[in-house]
Amino acid sequence: MTATQPLELLAPLSGVLLALDKVPDPVFSSRLIGDGLCIDPTSQTLCAPLAGVISDIQDTGHAVSITADNGVQVLLHIGLDTVNLAGKGFSRLVGEGQRVEAGQPLIEFDADYVALNARSLLTLMLVVSGEPFALLASDSGPVTLGQPLVRLSPGETAETEDEEEGDALFSKPLTLPNANGLHARPAAVFAQAAKGFDASIYLHKQTQSANAKSLVAIMALQTVQGDTLQVSAAGEDAAAAIKALVALLAEGCGESVAAPVEGVEPRVSLASTSLLRGVCASPGSAFGQVVQVAEPALSIPETGGGEALERAALDRGLHAATEALQSLQAKAVGSAQAQIFRAHQELLEDPTLLEQAHDLLAVGKSAAFAWNSATLATAQLFQGLGNALLAERAADLADVGQRVLKLILGIHDRAWELPERAILIAEQLTPSQTASLDTHKVLGFVTVGGGATSHVAILARALGLPAICGVPPQVLTLADGRQVLLDADKGELHLDPDLAEIEQLQATHREQIARRQRDVAQARLAAITRDGHHVEVTANVASLQEVEQSLSLGGEGVGLLRSEFLYLDRHRAPSPEEQAGTYNAIARALGPERNLVVRTLDVGGDKPLAYVPMDAETNPFLGLRGIRLCLERPELLREQFRAILASAGLTRLHIMLPMVSLLSELRLARTMLEEEALALGLTELPKLGIMIEVPSAALMADVFAPHVDFFSIGTNDLTQYTLAMDRDHPRLASQADSFHPAVLRLIATTVKAAHAHGKWVGVCGALASEALAVPVLIGLGVDELSVSVPLIPTIKATVRELDLADCQIIAHQVLGLEEAAQVREALRLYHAATVETSPVVEH
Ligand code: PEP
Ligand code: MG
């Protein structure tokens, strides 16, 4: 393209000019984005400085780019750090792709609001296409809207469309960490880095691609935090470009993206830090060497060799992947891992995914390209739904997607050659990667992504390995072989551990193993405090297998059967007979003397169920969750009641309703249960209780108590709703703490109300599985602790080491503290003074 006509740019605003060098922001003043000028505005409508097409207008309305017919591209950016205003104070008057005339209004803004709420109102006009530039006015002083301000002298500018040549290399998908996506500043840093390579480079988001050397193209992708991106490159230095740009994206392209778990720490560079923090995904500790787990870049040809041929290649890949997954299921460590691979197999059969891939084959794309695009787009969709469990599904999809992709491309995974004492570090460790690990050589996992409920966490717990997740991306730059200390209990990775720390940790580790062996050996003993108070310790389960395991570990019944998990990975609803069969088998395993508390479907929020389709909700945790959803779809609940009631008489049957916040919900559900029981000819109803996991239910426990047989406190949800902190939010993980006195006070209120009406109270949230919390829960009067299966022996042993009278005193004390950290500290001191001085009985 030629662009030889001189071109004048008009002032987009009235105001006072400021030389670019004086702008207090290095990305602009260093001309990283392009040369231009700055106006301190006195008007409030940004107008087009030239005619052209809107090549990008940010959703937040703070920046807009125009491309003229001759290729000149101008970026207008209102204010500094205004991306943080998330659109407040800006109204867009034009849309992307729209042609505009010079002087046409583009964006209106509220100057007062922006000036008060952003770092600065200084507005930039930058020529990002790089044409030589002459100012027609002095570089300081007043300007008037529409006044000619700049003359561009475009010379012969060759067409610089950067077509990818030959087969491109693709990076593995990565998650964008920047809080505000790739807005002007990080996009400029990224584009600048890309320009340092000869290769043609593209940044991909779902089906959109942007030339990575073009700031505007990157901004036009409108990325947001959590987007799945891929970098592709073609040319001699493609591999180096991908490596560098992926690392840059992981680090935040010059923005702070660390997730300081304590909430207040500024980002620290690896050079100056000796500690990285994350969240405990699986407890324990290890001292070992760093092994970075990076997927090799894959070369994906875009164009296929004919639809029939490519379709056959895709089918072969899918078939081979299914076979591989079946054999992985057979070799899986425990049911959790097997379930994950079964879920992967289901994903391979997903009709929407296959349809997307076939559509791309039909327009001439290669099998690898079609499959990769379809999985990326679907993973992105999952991630964008604002649902933690679905976001983790996105990681599964990426995993199974890569498996098929490699099979199509003929790349064979070989088992890793791991060094001894490996601490694996990865952006996200996929189930497939963990399945092919030599677990004798691995001591622990550290991941940037994932949450405490992610599959990596599940697998780490199944393997008994310590793991932390949500660690800042700098961890990916640690050198292989570096000796590090992983203290998963505290969520810490020590980069320069000293000998004393290592010895201390190893001693603690040995003690923990000795305690565990002792606790398991004594698991059958009842949980009775030293002063004779019995506390029932039951299990939280999601399968028959877990019920059986709980009994072998001394579990006294089931305090929470999460019924939605029985069929989590199914696309079709189980038949009524199948449901009844499952409850029946569990009831028989427990026998007539033990409690079985079946929680009715708790779908929605963090727990989608594939066969219960739901509308997307802006705020799913506050939406149609649990009992609310069931009351909207009464047939679902009635069918479940019938299936549960089929086990009446086999065990001490209890039915529990989740997410109850209103008395009317309990009343409606009770009426349905009574009707179903009557229809089945039952003379006696099973016990009916509710979960206390919403503050309204806890505060009104005295009103609910006469209408229930029992309460069970769900501290996971109770914490998130009390503190208004998403239970899966990686940055809030350390603050969304169930030890917070606010949560403990609600537990106290609930117990008091229940006991006043002669009803028992359990705690089935994760707080009950924390040995540190046991004294306070017992002291507050909780009657039953329903805990995660492997922890049954520990919790029972802890109860046996306590005195009820002491627990009541400490419980009373901690209710008066100010924050969770103080509660934890007080309990730690109490624990050290009591439990740890108890003699360890060797067996
Ligand atoms: C809870 O919220 O504490 C609970 C036990 O239920 P879930 O974790 O299944 O939501
Ligand atoms: Mg809950």
UniProtKB/TrEMBL annotation:
Similarity comment text for this entry: Belongs to the PEP-utilizing enzyme family.
Gene3D superfamilies: Glucose Permease (Domain IIA) (2.70.70.10), HPr-like (3.30.1340.10), Phosphoenolpyruvate-binding domains (3.20.20.60), Phosphohistidine domain (3.50.30.10), PtsI, HPr-binding domain (1.10.274.10)
PANTHER family: PHOSPHOENOLPYRUVATE-PROTEIN PHOSPHOTRANSFERASE (PTHR46244)
Location of the protein in the cell: Cytoplasm
Cofactor: Mg(2+)
Molecular-function GO terms, alphabetical: phosphoenolpyruvate-protein phosphotransferase activity
Domain named PTS EIIA type-1: residues: 25-129
PROSITE patterns the UniProt entry points to: PEP_ENZYMES_2 (PS00742), PTS_EIIA_TYPE_1 (PS51093), PTS_EIIA_TYPE_1_HIS (PS00371), PTS_HPR_DOM (PS51350), PTS_HPR_HIS (PS00369)
All copies of domain HPr, residue ranges: 169-256
InterPro entries listed in its UniProt record: Dup_hybrid_motif, HPr-like, HPr-like_sf, PEP-util_enz_mobile_dom, PEP-utilizing_PTS_enzyme, PEP_util_C, PEP_util_CS, Phosphohistidine_dom_sf
EC number: 2.7.3.9
Species, as recorded: Pseudomonas veronii
Keyword tags: Cytoplasm, Kinase, Magnesium, Metal-binding, Phosphotransferase system, Sugar transport, Transferase, Transport
Reactions accelerated catalytically: L-histidyl-[protein] + phosphoenolpyruvate = N(pros)-phospho-L-histidyl-[protein] + pyruvate
Designated name of the protein: phosphoenolpyruvate--protein phosphotransferase
Primary location recorded for the protein, binned into one broad class: cytoplasm
